[in-house]
Amino acid sequence: MKRYYIAYGSNLNVQQMRWRCPGARIIGTSELQDYRLLFKGSKTGSYLTVEPEKGCTVPVVVWEVTDQDELALDRYEGYPSFYYKTEMTLDVKGIRTGKLRRRRAFVYIMREERPYGVPANSYLSICGQGYRFFGFPVDKLLEACQYSRERMKYHEGR
Q1: DSSP class of 115
Q2: On the chain, which terminus has fewer CB atoms closer than 10 Å, C or N?
Q3: Which domain holds residue 138?
């Protein structure tokens, strides 16, 4: 059975994905409806995640992955302690054909109790490369930084 993976952060970077998951192939692009992109993390750094929020959207890439690729992604994402996995069904615009196909795919979401944070420039750069490659609006990343910075200040002030 084919497995599909939804990427919204550093795994939009094709070069990085080719190295990490050599069996993966790009299926197409989509959007997560009613989700917000934001940064959360730990003492080692802040990374992208998504959380439900009405009216927001997050551009994503859907990859077809092998079992070995999924294991590599589990390790990279710190599954199950840092990120957990959930399944979503979404309309994917084919990378070659432009046709819309409904696909069920898994996505990693950071544990919600993690604190808001601001990413390292190097991580932001890797994500930005993926955004530009797929023609996604880089403003989404900047909005996520601003939102997370404001939330971080709010929570520190409590």
Answers
A1: P
A2: N
A3: 3-156
